[in-house]
Amino acid sequence: MKQLEFTILKEDEDKRIDNFLNENLEDISRSRIQKLIEENQVLVNNKNINKNYKLKINDYIVVNIEEPKEIDILPENIPLDIVYEDDDVILINKPQNMVVHPANGHYTNTLVNALMFHCKDNLSGINGALRPGIVHRIDKDTSGILVVAKNDKAHKSLSNQLENHSMTRVYYAIVYNNLKNDIGTIDKPIGRHPIDRKKMAVIEKNGKRAVTHYEVLKRFKKYTFIRLKLETGRTHQIRVHMAYIGNPLLGDTTYGGQKQPFKLVGQVLHAKVLGFIHPTTNEYMEFETELPQYFNELLNKLQ
């Protein structure tokens, strides 16, 4: 366990503790800092606090960080669909059925293994050995675009954009049933499911604000083709929100029932558009990917 200590001076008075730590812990992302606070690994004057705590002069902060376990994640020569690449970022169009980063019991054939082969040592180290370069992720069975950081400066910039909801993320999906309105917004908090801990749910107690905007692109008899724009980025947000309003994603056996029409292998969800401020040039960049073949074939069947 690594322990870091800080004593607050006049210039840092009244700062939120998560903002202060984000400024002073160069190699740790904001989301991980907030998780450390939630797990009571950040103490102020030997007391637990929340992320909204405002600092006072002479506050004594202790941050406990568990040392990562040594696990060998090996580079693998897996083909990548590269949308854009420079010295700071690389954007990948991830196929369906690919896990983004290694986790317990699953250390090969992930996007990270492929990135390590392609980028060599040019990936940020902020999220540790299991997730080099990974700023955000999309589910195994969700296809589409995501951005990866090639250095720590880029990682911090992109993480902050995710945190302040300034990153553009647009998804296309096919859902069950017809939506009542052509355009709408779902503003419901999402948290861990109270019974099934592997799932998320719309939940008021301990849920975090989650906002999804949707627009109907085409209506079919039993299904609807929609465009979704994320304002926040909670785990499984689109899948949970659409199931909540009675329009679960087609192919989603976790939130939409066990039946799998059309012999699908997962939810019909594609991350189509991604936009952000470039970490070095400070210019806004936006990228768009084509719908994958399985998605277009399904649309043709539904015509």
What is the element layout, followed by pairings?
Blueprint: E1 2-7, H1 17-24, H2 30-38, E2 42-44, E3 47-48, E4 60-65, E5 82-85, E6 89-94, H3 111-119, E7 143-149, H4 152-163, E8 168-176, E9 183-187, E10 190-192, E11 200-202, E12 211-219, E13 223-230, H5 237-244, E14 269-277, E15 284-288, H6 293-302
Parallel strand pairs: 7-14
Antiparallel strand pairs: 1-4, 2-3, 2-4, 5-6, 6-7, 8-13, 8-14, 9-12, 10-11, 12-13, 14-15
Kindly list the characteristics that best describe this protein:
303 residues, Structural Genomics Hypothetical 15.5 Kd Protein In mrcA-pckA Intergenic Region, Chain A, Pseudouridine synthase, 3 domains, 6 helices, 15 strands, globular
The total domain count is 3
The CA-CA distance between the termini, in Å, is: 58 Å
Overall average pLDDT: 93
Structural class from helices and strands? alpha+beta
Can you walk through the features of this model?
With 303 residues, the protein is α+β, with helices and mostly antiparallel strands. It has three domains: 2-65, Structural Genomics Hypothetical 15.5 Kd Protein In mrcA-pckA Intergenic Region, Chain A, CATH 3.10.290.10; 69-163, 2-Layer Sandwich (Pseudouridine synthase); 168-271 and 295-302, Pseudouridine synthase, CATH 3.30.2350. The protein is 18% helix and 28% strand. The protein contains six helices and 15 strands. It has helices at residues 17-24, 30-38, 111-119, 152-163, 237-244, 293-302; strands at residues 2-7, 42-44, 47-48, 60-65, 82-85, 89-94, 143-149, 168-176, 183-187, 190-192, 200-202, 211-219, 223-230, 269-277, 284-288. Strands 5, 6, 7, 8, 9, 12, 13, 14 and 15 form a nine-stranded mixed beta sheet that branches. The protein has a four-stranded antiparallel beta sheet with strand order 1-4-2-3. Strand 12 (211-219) and strand 13 form a beta hairpin. Helix 1 crosses helix 2 (30-38). It is globular. The N and C termini lie far apart (58 Å). The mean pLDDT is 93.
